[in-house]
Amino acid sequence: MIDTDKEKEIISRLHERIRNDGVVIGEDVLKVDTFLNHQIDPVFIMQLGQELGQRFAANGVTKILTVEASGIAVAMAAGLALNVPVLFAKKGRPSTLQGQVYVAQVFSFTRQGETDIFVSAHFLSADDVVLIVDDFLAHGEALQGLISLARQAGARIAGAGIVIEKSFQHGGDAPRQEGIRIESLAAIASMRPGEIRFLSEG
Ligand code: 5GP
To answer: How far away, in angstroms, is 110 Cα from ligand 1 center?
Structure first.
């Protein structure tokens, strides 16, 4: 819910950045490389992550969970806002990741291929209340993978905080139906080159 002027201002700046800087590729990929996915605008990303964190401030979150690489910056900002550690799932298992791990298979929408994502069991447990954070929610593969990792650990899921949800790809539908709270700062109803419509605009 948007209930303060500051929140409204951040959301409207995000809409503006998406409209001004965003490049729509085909009908389903949005490039926001100027501030989120390649080059990062630190001040703005801090504000976005802080806003996401604040929406879950009353939920006893003990850990932020995201997936490398483009979720990390905003997850870090949310972790700073809630003063909790930030855990990022690794794509592929590096030799340094030893001992018990949780693993989930994720189909990457932008890379068009399957990847296994891993976290060490050392960093996620049944005592944790997890806030999942990511840059985009599209078909929901990454989110479902992160939900699976949290569940394998027996952790409770406070919800998911997303910077940009492409609502027309419906990745949020199944988790919402299961009762998982998803907060998206910007929700795109439809897009094509030169025209982006946000859900909030009706
Ligand atoms: P999903 O798993 O929900 O289909 O896609 C989410 C993941 O794919 C995000 O972590 C994000 O990195 C990437 N992604 C999905 N759609 C887009 C998009 O339109 N633009 C960019 N830059 N990344 C996307």
So the answer is: 6
Q: Could you tell me the domains of the chain?
A: 47-189 (3.40.50.2020)
Instruction: Look up the pTM and report it.
Output: 0.97
What is the rounded average pLDDT of the residues 134-161?
Answer: 98
> CA-CA distances (angstroms) from residue 113 to 30, 116, 167?
18, 10, 22
Supply the pLDDT for residue 3: 61
Q: Which amino acid is at 72?
A: I
Report the atom number in ligand 1 closest to the C-alpha of 145: 2
Please give the single-letter amino acid code of residue 195: E
Report which DSSP code applies to 4.
Answer: S
| Cα 89 from Cα 158, distance rounded (Å) | 18
Residue nearest to atom 10 of ligand 1 (CA): 136
- Ligand 1: lining residues by beta carbon, under 6 Å: 29-31, 37, 70-71, 109-110, 134-143, 171
